[in-house]
Amino acid sequence: MILFRAYWALGPSTMHERGIVTLCDSNYYPGLLSLHASVQASLPIPVLCYDIGLSSVQREEAAKIHNLEILALPDDPLIEALRIGTSDCTPLKKPNKRIWPLWICPLLIRAAPAIELFWLDCDLVVLRDLDILFGFLDDGPVLTPENKAPHATPNSPRLYELMPIARSFDPVLPTLNAGVSGWRRGRDDAALAAYIAPIARAAHDDELRGAIAWHDQGALIWAVQSLGIEDRVLSDWRFNLCVDHVLDRLDGVIWDVDIAERLRPLLPDVAVLHWNGLKAPWLD
To answer: How far is residue 109's CA from residue 7's CA, in Å, rounded to a whole number?
Structure first.
């Protein structure tokens, strides 16, 4: 039997009622600025960004931006274990993209100084309805569907041999995307602990790590399956829509900090637009 230890790490002294949590390095800083601007236009709440390699100039600039907080990584031994455990993994095709940060999302959620929070990847923008997304938290954690490559989301069957699940479940469901997820401190401790459980094992077990699909995303899928909370995955794509579905409407749109302002009239049916699986547009 797997025992989950549910806790939230202590964060900075200021605990926010609501917040957006993300992480960023120097390459993704333009994405952080556009994410922050898009959040403020939809719902003016703090964006809490964990620093995994910002430059000193970027940190100084960010310190002057209202509702943007740059946080040091939490003092969590699992982060160091993931650094070491993934040091020999095959690099991703994306330039300068490291492996270990792809596993630490739930550790940052656990440490984040907010009562209610949404994790948002740094390669997306909020166009509207962030208040509605937070409203979904009233009934439990909020998860969003994968709509770029849902066929690629299932974990390897080997994962369920190494970490069995007692309840009956469909191993190819849910097809979710971990780039947008919502959590409430305290109430969702068990779900978050289940999210972390495969990652904790993966830090020290190469075979198990290889059986998890798409890093922390596969761990989140295992957690959903183990707890039977498949119904917490939204059916509506618009709260985490892959940009692939609207590329034909984006001709001539140039990325800058205010890109969301220009996208809103072009994409009236989209709440959150995500460049998942694609080269970040500011790197072109």
So the answer is: 11
CA–CA distance, 240 with 274 (Å, rounded to integer): 6
- Under DSSP, is residue 109 helix (H, G, I), strand (E, B) or coil? helix
Contact at 8 Å (CB) between 38 and 260? yes
Strands across the sheet containing 142-145: 68-71, 47-51, 16-24, 114-120, 176-184, 142-145
* Exposure string for 224-235, b = 16+ CB within 10 A, e = fewer: bbbbebeebbbe
Q: How many CB atoms lie within 10 A of CB 270?
A: 24
Per-residue pLDDT of the chain (284 residues; tens, 9 = 90+): 333 333 333 334 489 999 999 999 999 999 999 999 999 999 999 999 999 999 999 999 999 999 999 999 999 999 999 999 998 776 555 555 689 999 999 999 999 999 999 999 999 999 999 999 999 999 999 999 999 999 999 999 999 999 999 999 999 999 999 999 999 999 999 999 999 999 999 999 999 999 999 999 999 999 999 999 999 999 999 999 999 999 999 988 889 999 999 999 999 999 999 999 888 888 87
**What is the 8-class DSSP label of residue 73?**
P
12's CB contacts (< 8 A; 6+ apart) are: 69, 71, 113
Tokens standing for 73? 């990584």
Q: Which CATH architecture has domain 16-283?
A: Alpha-Beta Complex (3.90)
The closest of 17, 8, 201, 23 to 123, measured between CA atoms, is 23
Token pair for 135:
């409203």
Helix (H) or strand (E) holding 190: helix 189-202
Question: What is the CA 183 to chain-centroid distance, rounded?
Answer: 11
Q: Give the Cα separation of 31 and 156 in Å (integer).
A: 32
Strands 114-120 vs 68-71: parallel, antiparallel or unpaired: unpaired
Q: What is the dihedral of CA 206, 209, 211, 213, to 10 degrees?
A: -150
